[in-house]
Amino acid sequence: MRKKITVVGAGQVGTTVAQLIAFRNLADVVLIDIVEGVPQGKALDLQQSGCLQVFDSLITGTNDYKDTADSDIVVITAGVPRKPGQDRADLLKTNANIVKNVTEEVMKHSKNPILIVVSNPLDAMVYLAKEVSGLPRERVMGMAGVLDSARFRTFVALELNCSMVDVDAMVLGGHGDSMVPMPRYTTVSGISITNLMDRDQIERLVERTRKGGAEIVGLLKNGSAFLAPGASVAKMVEAIVQDKKRILPCTAYLNGEYNWKGIFFGVPVELGFNGINKIIELDLTPEEKEALDTSAKDVKTTIEEVDAFLGKSV
Ligand SMILES: NC(=O)C1=CN([C@@H]2O[C@H](COP(=O)(O)OP(=O)(O)OC[C@H]3O[C@@H](n4cnc5c(N)ncnc54)[C@H](O)[C@@H]3O)[C@@H](O)[C@H]2O)C=CC1
Ligand SMILES: O=C([O-])CC(=O)C(=O)O
Fold first, then answer.
1. Domains in the chain and their CATH numbers?
2. Is 160 near ligand 1, meaning CB less than 6 Å away?
3. Which residues does the entry assign to the active site, renumbered to this chain (predicted)?
């Protein structure tokens, strides 16, 4: 039977995700939003591209969570994007209310979905979705590392004037300014970039990656990135639906891995049919470990804000 994927939020990211899932024939899609008419209009428009793009996925637009019943995967993109000058953490209060409400509604109609959270601030919102849904940690994850790594890959390829597809990269940590691009684990056809570039070059690309989201917010002026984010979600969805067992950097709940407990954090995971099959622990230099700990402390601060929002004692 064809899989059913609900995409909550029919905005920039949600629409891109729906489109890529359909274009790749991965599943039927339910697009849901609070604004009346918009998910319905976008779903119909997308459905009408099926005969041109050659897909058979059924696309439904709705404002009613009943239509999301028995979803295999739910992608949560509902929430406001940041404006130039804002930090992702500035969105916490507004988006916490939205993500809490969305997760409650989703769980009323789907018993055991896999949740992929996109809304910002990402690490805090995925933690909130796990707390509210009560789902096991294997089935709740955030999208950030695939996107941040795609940005790092792009900057490396542009710098070296080599093919994008030959570059592989690993960006770990929280989805904020202290995220941790990992040059030692970033390669061009298997060759670490530490052998291909000097320290200053690498540091420049690392900094650009850390600020990759803000760079686009500054250019767009009204909204944030959505094309590469949508493609990043689609890659995660594909790995799950097709049980690919791909190893991708995703935001996962840590229970002692990397010496952290009770936080969501960007780490390499194996993704398949049941969600996160395992978390992979990399060998780290003291410098890399220190950078990850700094990022984890930043994430913990936003997670404590979510605990306070939920009325949990910290
Ligand atoms: N994790 C990541 O790497 C990325 C995260 N984001 C985040 O994703 C979120 C969405 O971004 P965009 O799609 O660009 O924003 P957008 O403004 O284009 O779309 C958001 C949609 O959510 C809907 N919405 C608001 N409240 C809702 C509710 N209670 N139920 C259902 N739908 C609701 C809005 O009506 C709107 O259509 C933002 O928080 C943004 O910061 C964006 C890009 C990358
Ligand atoms: O920058 C933002 O606010 C959206 C986002 O998370 C990204 O593009 O990395």
1. 4-142 (3.40.50.720), 145-308 (3.90.110.10)
2. no
3. 175
